[in-house]
Design brief:
Helix 2 crosses helix 3 and helix 4 packs across helix 5. The chain is globular and about 50 Å long. The longest helix has 18 residues. It has a six-stranded mixed beta sheet with strand order 3-2-4-1-5-6. The protein has a single domain, classed as Rossmann fold. Helices cover 32% and strands 18% of the residues. It has six helices and six strands. A hairpin with a 2-residue loop joins strand 5 and strand 6. The chain is α/β, with parallel strands linked by helices and 204 residues long.
Amino acid sequence: MASFWMIRHALVAPEALSFLYGRNDVPLCDHALASQGARYAALAARLPVDADWVVTPLSRTRLTAEKIFAGGYGTRDMLVEPGLVEQDFGDWQGRKIEEFNDRPVDQRHPFWPVAAAEQPPGGESFVEMIERVGQTIERLASIHQGRNIVAVSHGGAIRAAIAYAMGLSAHQALTMSVENLSLTRLEYHGENWRFVSLNEQLST
């Protein structure tokens, strides 16, 4: 068995929230970082001490992991895994989300500016993202057999992992809420995935 403990990174800076930032390396919110020490301590206490740690190439995942380390977990080495990075929105990255509000209903998701099967110019669809993330967690489960894997990742990647493991459609996956600093758990038992929890909100 391989056990995945997936954490969405901390809240990004307010000025980024109105944009489709995707893979842009936006900063974290300084106020949230300073005021949420209890949540980092709670995560540090909840996570398995013998875990292998994985982050993505974007700094917001590494900085979130470092805050958990400082919250009482202790420093660990981190593997950088590009396969768990956020969706590539191509030419649409950095555009204001409000620009997508007037698009036809069939070109957007009820809870997301972009439809699940839609491929942004120069980017990837969420359908394609599910396949990418699925291949990544399968590979990580094989490499880290019998281990706990803490993956600090992104909301889109966590939704994609659940969709792959549970056989959900991309449209269904985008209806799930994945909050910042929440914990989602998946287990891989041979050829079978088990969904343990979604969006755990921890505090001391």
